[in-house]
Amino acid sequence: MPPDVYDRRGSLLRDQLLRFAVVGVVCTIVYLACFVGFAATMPAQVANAAALLLSALLNTAANRRLTFGVVGRAGAVQHHVQGIAVYAVGLAITAGSLAALGAAHPHPSATEQAVVLIAATAVATAARFVLLRSWVFAWPSDADAPGTRRA
Question: How many domains does the chain have?
Answer without folding.
Answer: 1
